[in-house]
Write a structure and sequence with these properties.
- The protein is flat.
- The protein contains 1 helix and 4 strands, in the order βαβββ.
- The chain is α+β, with helices and mostly antiparallel strands and about 80 residues long.
- The protein has a single domain, classed as Regulatory factor, effector binding domain (Multidrug-efflux Transporter 1 Regulator Bmrr, Chain A, Alpha-Beta Barrel), CATH 3.20.80.
- Helix content is about 20%, strand content about 30%.
Length: about 80
C-alpha cells in the first residue's frame, strides 16, 4: 500500500461557483445525488465548468456504509446566451 503513496499529489482547486450536496450513504448511490445537482443546474440555467469532486467526511473503515458522508461538488457557470 505504501507504493501508492508516491502517486498522491496536492492540488489547489480554483472552482469558482459550485453546486454542492451532502451525500449520505454508500459510494455506489452517489449517482442519485449527482442527478439532483444536474437537475438544479438545468433549472437555474447553469452548465458544467470543470470536473466534479468529492470531499470525504467519513472514514469508510470506521463508519457504517449507510452513514458515510461525502460532499459532492460540481463547478458551474451561467449558460452562454
Amino acid at each position: 500500500m505504501l507504493k501508492l503513496a508516491n502517486e498522491i499529489k496536492l492540488e489547489n482547486l480554483k472552482e469558482g461557483k459550485c453546486i454542492q450536496i451532502l451525500h449520505i450513504g454508500p459510494y455506489s448511490t452517489e449517482p442519485e445525488s449527482l442527478v439532483k445537482i444536474y437537475k438544479l443546474m438545468k433549472d437555474k440555467g447553469l452548465v458544467y465548468n470543470g470536473y466534479h469532486n468529492e470531499i470525504y467526511l467519513s472514514d469508510p473503515r470506521k463508519a457504517a456504509t449507510e452513514k458515510i458522508k461525502t460532499i459532492l461538488r460540481q463547478p458551474v457557470k451561467d449558460k452562454p446566451k
